[in-house]
């Protein structure tokens, strides 16, 4: 699961909140620190841009992993940071009052001790490019390039409520060249990150965990307003985390989080990562963009959208093959705000799912829960619009009771474009999406929409709890056969990968699983990514390639980069690369081939 609703909350969280703080009878809950103290290995690179550690990030009484012995370094000691200003000290004191007396983290879903346990705990510092060791097999030539995985890694130890989706974006990059590999971990230098790094402490409230009930929302909203009035930060420069995914289009690489605009990043020849800046595409992109744009391999076009809490709740748009943004298509026929984390495209259409997750103001006002929740009385809908539409006049909505998707796998046209087929994991227990992810079960379903009759049929194609599914990128928007999905055991932990042959479901309503790979006792990974063995060969078979992912062994506390044969019956190991440092669990990844890296 990933931060699929931050776009919705981004504008809610910093404005239109009452500034009078109601009294609170909340009991005191003191939070112990959970950040891991680690020292990265001495780098073989000459890069020396590791961020200077700050005192507030070093007060860690009991990390969940043992402190590593510090290696001897010949580098001069870092220059001490100046003490915080009086204004920062006062604001932090108010933060502590709110976090201790008004809104302590009483629920497990926002308790840092629970959320940041095991390998969900962040790494302390960035890691410059550092050599890795191939301990099994060999890295195929088609992997020359970089595999990049995005995910949350809070810059500062949470002093109050913290949700898994609230961490600053960190990119973990394994750069592969001629059978060798280096690992680099760098923060995406968002506006939020740089302001808080300069200040030496958090400035913006956490979107997912900072607005639990009217009292907490009013308190944190008032404090944010005062910080803005003093010039501490300017929300017009963005409040996003860029912690969700990545996309390569228009010869540029972007780190994405749907509460903000994309951040352009670059992977250098030695494997380092540089943030180039926030991009608005010549002023044509406003507010935010989905973290799951769809790229048509054949046309080079990129399709995307944004959503939010005020009309139009959905806006559809696209980029041409050169990365130039086209005009917005606002969709006013979606009449209530809904979470639209992902969508799908076909050669003719874009397909959206309006699900039961949305605003839950009554829970926030009269309870102590999040302003986001499930509306059980709402009937989910699927919307289909021509992908080159100039307006929403041809948008059609189809009611699909019980169909709640967070991620879409793929979609395609059939019957000459009169039928749309979509494959996606349906969240059967959507009410637990934010609070109890361990209770979520996602059933991959095949949905068929007859555009002539309006009839919608659907059936499951696998019985396991599956999400974070991918396909061969060449098949986005057209009929594919194979799907590779992560096994939730339970979510958000991923114990293995399955391969589905969804063509089996066309004639027989059966479980389409044709291969399974379990990572092993105490080992968990992330979303797989498919890399074609011969990406430029039009005759290559769809599954002729490799699956790559990071895997962490919680028993040995070591992380590795795993390469699997996507065509083999059991997704056999092709190569294992031992990583020089732990890589925390994260969200979505991307492989960028060498020729594309050179275009950055």
From TrEMBL:
Top-level taxon in the UniProt lineage: Eukaryota
Cofactor annotation: Fe(2+)
Ranges of Low complexity composition bias in the record: 1-27, 41-60
Pfam families: RPE65 (PF03055)
UniProt: Fe cation binding residues: 292, 341, 407, 588
Ranges of compositional bias, category Pro residues: 75-85
GO molecular function: carotenoid dioxygenase activity; metal ion binding
Listed GO CC annotations: chloroplast stroma
Segments of this protein annotated with the region Disordered: 1-85
Protein keywords: Dioxygenase, Iron, Metal-binding, Oxidoreductase
Cofactor binding note of this UniProt entry: Binds 1 Fe(2+) ion per subunit.
Gene Ontology biological process terms in this record: carotene catabolic process
Stated family: Belongs to the carotenoid oxygenase family.
PANTHER family: BETA-CAROTENE DIOXYGENASE, CAROTENOID CLEAVAGE DIOXYGENASE 4, CHLOROPLASTIC-RELATED
Name of the protein in question: Carotenoid cleavage dioxygenase 4
Organism name: Rhododendron japonicum f. flavum
Gene responsible for this protein: RjCCD4
């Amino acid at each position: 699961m990933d931060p699929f609703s931050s776009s919705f909350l981004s504008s809610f969280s910093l404005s239109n909140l009452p500034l009078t703080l109601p009294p609170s009878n909340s009991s005191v809950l003191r939070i112990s620190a959970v950040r891991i103290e680690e020292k990265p290995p001495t780098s073989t690179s000459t890069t020396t841009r590791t961020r200077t550690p700050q005192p507030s990030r070093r007060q860690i009484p009991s990390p969940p992993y043992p402190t590593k012995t510090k290696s001897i370094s010949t580098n001069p000691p870092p220059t001490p940071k100046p003490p915080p200003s009086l204004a920062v000290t006062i604001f932090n004191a108010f933060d502590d009052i709110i976090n201790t007396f008004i809104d302590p983290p009483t629920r497990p879903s926002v308790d840092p001790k629970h959320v940041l346990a095991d390998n969900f705990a962040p790494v302390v510092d960035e890691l410059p490019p550092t050599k890795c060791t191939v301990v099994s097999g060999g890295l195929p030539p088609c992997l020359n390039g970089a595999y990049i995985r995005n995910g949350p890694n809070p810059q500062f130890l949470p002093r109050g409520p913290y949700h898994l989706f609230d961490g600053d974006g960190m990119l973990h990059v394994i750069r592969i060249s001629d059978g060798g590999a280096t690992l680099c971990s760098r923060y995406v230098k968002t506006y939020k990150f740089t302001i808080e790094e300069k200040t030496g402490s958090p400035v913006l409230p956490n979107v997912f965990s900072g607005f639990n009930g009217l009292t907490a929302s009013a308190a944190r909203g008032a404090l944010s307003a005062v910080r803005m009035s003093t010039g501490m930060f300017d929300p017009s420069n963005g409040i996003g985390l860029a912690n969700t995914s990545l996309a390569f289009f228009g010869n540029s690489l972007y780190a994405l989080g749907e509460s903000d605009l994309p951040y352009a990043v670059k992977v250098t020849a030695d494997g380092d990562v540089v943030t180039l800046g926030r991009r608005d595409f010549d002023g044509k992109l406003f507010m935010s963009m989905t973290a799951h744009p769809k790229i048509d391999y054949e046309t080079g076009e990129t399709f995307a959208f944004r959503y939010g809490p005020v009309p139009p709740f959905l806006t559809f748009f696209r980029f041409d093959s050169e990365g130039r943004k086209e005009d917005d298509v606002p969709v006013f026929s979606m009449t209530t705000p809904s979470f639209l984390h992902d969508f799908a495209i076909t050669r003719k259409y874009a397909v959206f799912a309006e699900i039961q997750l949305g605003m839950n103001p009554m829970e926030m006002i009269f309870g102590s829960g999040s302003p986001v929740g499930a509306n059980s009385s709402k009937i989910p809908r699927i919307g289909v619009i021509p992908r080159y539409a100039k307006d929403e006049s041809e948008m059609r909505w189809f009611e699909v009771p019980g169909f709640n998707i967070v991620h879409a796998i793929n979609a395609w046209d059939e019957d000459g474009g009169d039928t749309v087929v979509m494959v996606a994991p349906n969240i059967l227990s959507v009410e637990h999406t934010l609070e109890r992810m361990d209770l979520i079960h996602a059933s991959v379903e095949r949905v068929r929409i007859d555009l002539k009759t309006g009839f919608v049929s659907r059936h499951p194609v696998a019985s396991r709890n599956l999400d974070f599914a991918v396909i061969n990128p060449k098949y986005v928007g057209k009929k594919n056969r194979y799907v590779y999905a992560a096994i939730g055991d339970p979510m958000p932990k991923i114990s293995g990968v399955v391969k589905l042959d969804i063509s089996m479901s066309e004639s027989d309503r059966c479980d389409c699983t044709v291969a399974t790979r379990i990572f092993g006792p105490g080992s968990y990974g992330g979303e797989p990514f498919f890399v074609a063995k011969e990406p430029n060969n039009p005759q290559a078979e769809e599954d002729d390639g490799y699956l790559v992912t990071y895997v962490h062994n919680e028993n040995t506390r070591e992380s590795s980069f795993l390469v699997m044969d996507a065509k083999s019956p059991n997704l056999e190991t092709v190569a294992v690369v031992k990583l020089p440092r732990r890589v925390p669990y994260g969200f979505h990844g991307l492989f960028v081939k060498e020729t594309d890296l050179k275009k950055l």
